[in-house]
Design goal:
The chain is of the alpha/beta class and 328 residues long. The chain folds into two domains: 155 residues, Spo0b-associated Gtp-binding Protein, Chain: A (Distorted Sandwich); 166 residues, Rossmann fold (3-Layer(aba) Sandwich), CATH 3.40.50.300. It contains four helices and 14 strands. The strands form three sheets. Strands 10-11-9-12-13-14 form a six-stranded mixed sheet, with helices on both faces. α3 links the parallel β13 and β14. The longest helix has 15 residues. It starts with a strand and ends with a helix. About 2% of the residues have low confidence.
Length: 328
């Protein structure tokens, strides 16, 4: 998924004013009649509901609006340059580039349109400068230059529910059974290399958008595994669903340790993620016996989080989990 891009935008230059004088068959010394130049086109950013990545910016890095046309004879106004509208997904954050970057915009509504740089103003023709004192002005105004900006675009997915957990905990499988999404699923770590989205359908408008992000490992904040940059995609989520791999109990895995690893990596990215509502989901309970289940429940009770036990493969416990998610 392309979720970051750097672009350069430039508004159109204003057209120059015209220097001309009225000349006709029986008018040899007419007054000034140079028209004004047209305004340059502006650059706009508009969110498009049909886009979900910044891939259109992967190869095109520069966007330039049209220049205004120069003024004409007979006081004719030059044509304005056409505005340039750049389409981007909802959830795009626009930042200035440079030594002191700052957030300019956070576009979350579909169809939202914002002007990034305004086109240059057209110059005045010499007709505008006539007066009782200066009856034949032989000069005109130059159109102003359109501004240039260097910006960075950062996409944060708009999802209601964020699935987090260690690699191979079953996040993609859960996404596929809760929604119609078809992420890649395999029995090895880091099958998911980029965020996946799915919609869990309910009674409209109760549909929930669920985001499955790549698995985190201990040390991800220091660059191990796939890192933690994907965590930006769950910053807007209303609730986090923390999946734990119940099958680890078969090899003496410690679920509480796994839980702590993920919580620590979240804190390294942003402490605000720790404040989000979170529920625990113990997955793969179909492979556990009664003793192992008791062991798991006893350990996870210490987190003081609401716990759901499921099997994404056999669909056991999914209805209870769905009901809980719809509460948000």
């Amino acid at each position: 998924m392309i979720d970051f891009a750097r672009i350069t935008i430039k508004a159109g230059d204003g057209g120059d004013g015209r220097v001309s004088f009225r000349r006709e068959k029986f008018v040899s010394k007419g007054g000034p009649d140079g028209g004004d130049g047209g305004n340059g086109g502006s650059v706009w950013l508009e969110t498009d509901k049909d886009l979900n990545t910044l891939k259109p910016f992967q190869f095109q890095k520069k966007f330039v609006a049209e220049n205004g046309e120069p003024g004409g004879k007979y006081k004719r106004h030059g044509a304005d340059g056409k505005d340039l509208v750049i389409k981007t997904p909802s959830g795009t954050i626009v930042k200035t580039e440079g030594s002191d970057p700052s957030v300019l915009l956070d576009l979350v509504k579909p169809g939202e349109r914002v002007c990034l740089v305004k086109g240059g103003r057209g110059g005045k023709g010499n007709w505008q400068f006539r007066s009782s004192i200066l009856t034949t002005p032989k000069f005109a105004e130059t159109g102003s230059k359109g501004k240039t900006k260097q910006l960075s675009l950062e996409l944060k997915l708009l999802a209601d529910v964020g699935l987090i957990g260690l690699p191979n905990s079953g996040k993609s499988t859960l996404l596929s059974v809760l929604t119609r999404a078809k992420p890649k699923i395999a029995d090895y770590p880091f099958t998911t290399l980029e965020p996946n989205l799915g919609v869990m359908e309910g009674s409209d408008p109760s549909d929930l958008v669920i985001a499955d992000i790549p698995g985190l490992i201990e040390g991800a904040s220091k660059g191990k595994g796939l890192g933690i940059e994907f965590l930006r995609h769950i910053e807007r989520c209303k609730i986090l669903v923390h999946l734990l791999d119940g099958a680890k109990l078969l090899t003496s895995g410690v679920l509480l340790t796994d839980y702590s690893v993920i919580r620590n990596e979240l804190s390294q990215y942003s402490t605000s993620l720790l404040e989000k509502p979170e529920i625990l989901v113990l997955n793969k309970i179909d492979v556990l016996n009664k003793k192992q289940m008791i062991q798991a429940l006893t350990a996870l009770k210490k987190t003081k989080k609401k716990l759901f036990c499921i099997s994404a493969v056999t669909h056991k416990g999914l209805e209870e989990l769905k009901k809980e998610l719809y509460r948000y």
